[in-house]
Amino acid sequence: MTLELNGASLSIEDIKDFLHQQDQVAISSDALERVKKSRAIVEDIIKNKETIYGITTGFGLFSDVLIDPGQYNQLQVNLIRSHACGTGDPFSHDVALVMMILRLNTMLKGHSGVTTDLVDQLIYFINHRIIPIIPQQGSLGASGDLAPLSHLALALIGEGKVYYQQEERESSEVLEELGRKPLQLSAKEGLALINGTQAMTAQGVINWIEAESLAYQSEWIASLTHQALNGITDAYRPEVHDVRNFPEQSAVADRMLYWLEDSNLTTHQGEIRVQDAYTLRCIPQVHGASFETLNFVKKQLEREMNAANDNPLIFHEDDETLVISGGNFHGQPVAYALDFLKVAVSELGNIAERRLERLVNPQLNGDLPAFLSPEPGLQSGAMIMQYAAASLVSENKTLAHPASVDSIPSSANQEDHVSMGTIASRHGYQIADNTRRVLAIELIIALQAVELKGIDKLSPRSREKYETLRNITPSITEDRQFHKDITKVARYLQQTAYTEVDCK
Question: Renumbered to this chain, where is the cross-link 5-imidazolinone (Ala-Gly) (predicted)?
Fold first, then answer.
């Protein structure tokens, strides 16, 4: 299958399918025409020797410095080399690939003034899976993700490192091997490659895909815990949630009833207790709020995925040409959204840790053994798994601090307010990874608890999950190195993020 890009309609679902199905990209004919028209305007600017930021002038504080016409192209190469100051571990291959797709998509809107050669080079890299090695740290999230995108651009011109066919190599070597020439940057193109929010947005898209999967997975995992604790289903009745006016809360309640249908372990109010603790009773309210946040974040990300966010922007309407320096590269709308996503995913982990605590605590778990130990005293059972979960959710609380409330001036105070959105995106991925491990711990403990209660009493849908997971993590018959189980179950949850969405 081929993902056709047009600069206007790219969705997160498109990206999810692309990554899972190993698709190719192509561009629409209309988009290509827009690219050609915007490039023609740049050529006219050069011909007429107009003073336009980043085309005939320097950058940042040097915006008033005119460049000799014979050095316009060298200006762009110098920009990429000097701005490639990223540090730290590289972004994942998926993030780097999505970064290229998003950068290509924004150029297709026809406001960037790039050549078709640049468009073709991006398509070639994407379709041949030549993945630029892009350090994660170094972006302020305004003036675009300058450092990360410069490393992307280095690969295109044959000066950076790439990951190709299971190896990290020099871009120049790979291009020579494939008979492909490095891109020769023309006026405006270096700036068009790096003035944008594609690093934070690409990482944000991956975060969102994994967050959505975690949110759905947290429901069927919670249903196992609910049954192990003989939870009350009355609190999930639709009339309770319909009067609250939050549709996602109602949807979570409906799905919880779906997972618990025909269980012989659930109860009604008054049978064992009048009402459950909040971690069971308020699952729709808490998880539902996370889903509401996911909806908002998705809207913001998809807007940005289809936005023109470089500088300057080129417009040609009604025979009038405008080249305007603005600030669409400022990542604030995305930064806020990614900070909200961090909080929403953190809360999925927080409530999960409190649920699993109820399973192992003999004062809270009914008639289950302390820490679900097969031999209390001699065997510690799940005691320290709860410690690990508590540590992860505590770390998440630190990572969830909003990056977007920080700013530090740069470029001699010319760029005096920045978004820090790329930091939000990186911390968001760590939070998702930590939350997945918390859910894995809840799942391991819940499987053991329902086994002690009687798996024949489980709801049929929960029983299917139980059987699947028992092929990954066996029953706890004696103490063992549970970190291995946590890793295997977390890997299972992550692998199914792109292939299964347990929305029912």
Answer: 142-144
26 DSSP 8-state letter: E
CB 342 within 8 A of CB 400: yes
CA trace torsion 354, 359, 362, 364 (10° rounding): 60
Contact 365, 231 (CB under 8 A): no
Q: Enumerate the active-site residues.
A: 53
pTM for this one?
0.95
Main-chain phi, psi angles of 175, to 5 degrees: -65, -40
Give me the mean pLDDT over the 474-502 stretch: 89
Distance CA 211, CA 208 (A): 5
Task: Establish whether the linkage from the previous residue to 312 is cis, with ω within 30° of 0.
Answer: yes
187-203 average pLDDT score:
94
End residue of a domain, out of 168, 196, 224: 196
Task: Give Cα 196 to chain centroid, integer Å.
Answer: 17
Residue 200 corresponds to which tokens in the numbers above?
A: 């934070």
Give residue-wise pLDDT tens across range 137-146.
989 988 889 9
User: Distance between CA 189 and CA 126 in Å, rounded?
Assistant: 18
- Cα–Cα distance for residue pair 386/356, rounded to 1 Å: 7
Give the number of other Cβ atoms within 10 Å of residue 278's Cβ.
12
Question: And the tokens for 399?
Answer: 């990572």
Name the one residue in this structure whose structure tokens are 């309770």: 240
Average pLDDT of the chain? 93
3-state secondary structure string across 112-171 = CCCCHHHHHHHHHHHHCCCEECCEEECCCCCCCCHHHHHHHHHHHCCCCEEEECCEEEEH
Q: CA of 402: how far to CAs of 138, 299, 396, in Å?
A: 18, 19, 12
Give the domain-ending residue among 162, 196, 230: 196
What domain range is 369 assigned to? 204-307+344-407+414-495
CA distances from 95 to 204, 250, 273, 391, 425 (A): 9, 33, 48, 27, 11
In tens, the pLDDT along 99-150 reads 999 999 999 999 999 999 999 999 999 999 999 999 999 899 888 899 999 9
The one-character DSSP state at 401 is: S
Domain count, the chain: 2
